[in-house]
Design goal:
Elements (H helix, E strand, L loop, with lengths): L1 E5 L6 H12 L3 E3 H10 L3 H11 L6 H12 L8 E4 L5 H14 L5 E6 L2 H9 L1 E4 L5 E3 L18 E2 L6 H25 L2 E5 L4 H11 L5
Parallel strand pairs: 1-3, 1-4, 2-3, 4-8
Antiparallel strand pairs: 5-6, 5-7
Helix pairs in contact: 1-8, 2-3, 2-4, 3-4, 4-5, 6-7
The protein binds zinc ion.
Zinc ion (ZN) binds next to loops.
Length: about 220
């Protein structure tokens, strides 16, 4: 099964990707991981990507697309994959189609996790991170002691600077503006599955499985 996963920040995309990956026995490939691996392995494209990253610039499309092509044609992706973080623009989506064509593989589904802004803002503004061990908690779900110490290690819990409503709203706006056109593209192909991302982790996973014809 070959999938692309979309979801705004704070929607729990990483968790669902992990569940899908285990269930379908296919790798979860995020653009971040792919880049890090290519840089670490010092591939030609990895070194090229690094030269941009070192200057604090975005890795250009042709380099990123080359890296994705290498990964998708590798042994670990022969039974499928869950692609995460790419494509973000229409030209990238079209370039990806060309890769699929070259590799003679077919994209099965594009899964989009949908959560309204209000819910994401609620989730992210209630997020607390441990300064010591990095554990992430949600004040709405997790039991945090009154002294505001990490239940795991006793470290101090804090709120990340970018977990404030205005910054979150802006991130969501950027996400929606850039991805809507890409989602429309896949909707026209008839392979887009939009899933309501609010609820229990396992319930959402169940909805994803059903939408792509997988029985529990
Ligand atoms: Zn801790």
């Amino acid at each position: 099964m070959r999938l692309i996963l979309f979801g705004p920040p704070g929607v729990g995309k990483g968790t669902q990707a992990q569940i899908l990956s285990q269930k379908l026995n296919i790798p979860h490939i995020s653009t971040g991981d792919m880049l890090r691996e290519a840089v670490k392995n010092q591939t030609e494209l990895g070194l090229k990507a690094k030269s941009y990253m070192d200057r604090g610039e975005l890795v250009p499309d042709d380099v990123m697309i080359g890296i994705i092509k290498e990964v998708l044609s590798s042994e670990k992706c022969k039974n499928g994959f869950i692609l995460d973080g790419f494509p973000r623009t229409l030209p990238q989506a079209k370039a990806l189609d060309e890769i699929f064509e070259e590799l003679k593989i077919k994209l099965d589904y594009v899964i989009s996790l949908e959560v309204n802004d209000e819910e994401i803002i609620k989730r992210l503004t209630n997020r607390r991170v441990c300064r010591n061990c990095g554990a992430v908690y949600n004040l709405l779900i997790d039991k945090i002691p009154e002294d505001n110490k990490c239940p795991r290690c006793g470290g101090e819990l804090y709120q990340r600077n970018d977990d404030n409503p205005d910054i979150i709203k802006n991130r969501l706006k950027v996400y929606r503006e850039s991805t809507q056109i890409v989602l429309d593209y896949y909707a026209k192909k008839g392979i887009l599955k939009s899933i309501n991302g609010i609820g229990e982790i396992n319930t959402i996973a169940q909805k994803i499985f059903e939408s792509i014809g997988i029985k529990e």
